[in-house]
Write a sequence for this structure.
């Protein structure tokens, strides 16, 4: 027996219902890193998207209630790392702790941005724009350098990690 579809106004519904609906969209998983005066930090994010090919722009959206929010909003440069299927531990680490670099092979770029090795793609960016977006902000980055590696992506849907299987 199949369940009936649900329709609801997310402004008046249980926030968990809206979050569950959003979880139906399968995303890739990234770790965003930047340098701070206290050292390198990172954060797990699935709010990553391409914006423009010319100029090369991408975006991600940090939550305003994150303890790392102010550091990322102040960063002039940052890197977005698209994680591979075998980097779930790295994803979990940065979701909990900004300083989980002991889980990764990494080095600082000439500009001081922490760069994690072994990711499927890494986008080194300068901050192009920031926009208010409710309980998040949208950070648009101008991509200055890209590094890619072959492999399978780490995916996330309905609160669990998975893998992409092509048809």
């Amino acid at each position: 027996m199949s369940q009936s579809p649900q329709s609801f106004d997310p402004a008046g519904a249980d926030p968990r219902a809206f979050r569950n609906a959003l979880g139906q969209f399968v995303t890739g998983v990234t770790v965003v890193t930047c340098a701070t005066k206290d050292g390198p930090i990172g954060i797990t994010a699935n709010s990553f998207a391409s914006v423009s090919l010319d100029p090369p722009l991408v975006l991600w959206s940090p939550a305003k209630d994150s303890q790392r929010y102010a550091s990322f909003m102040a960063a002039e440069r940052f890197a977005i790392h698209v994680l591979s299927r075998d980097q779930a531990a790295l994803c979990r680490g940065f979701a909990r702790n900004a300083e989980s670099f002991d889980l990764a092979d990494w080095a600082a770029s000439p500009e001081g941005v922490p760069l994690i090795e072994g990711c499927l793609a890494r986008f080194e960016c300068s901050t192009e724009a920031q926009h208010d977006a409710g309980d998040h902000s949208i950070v648009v980055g101008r991509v200055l350098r890209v590094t890619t590696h072959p492999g399978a992506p780490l995916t996330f849907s309905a609160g669990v990690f998975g893998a992409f299987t092509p048809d």
In short: The chain is about 15% helix and 45% strand.
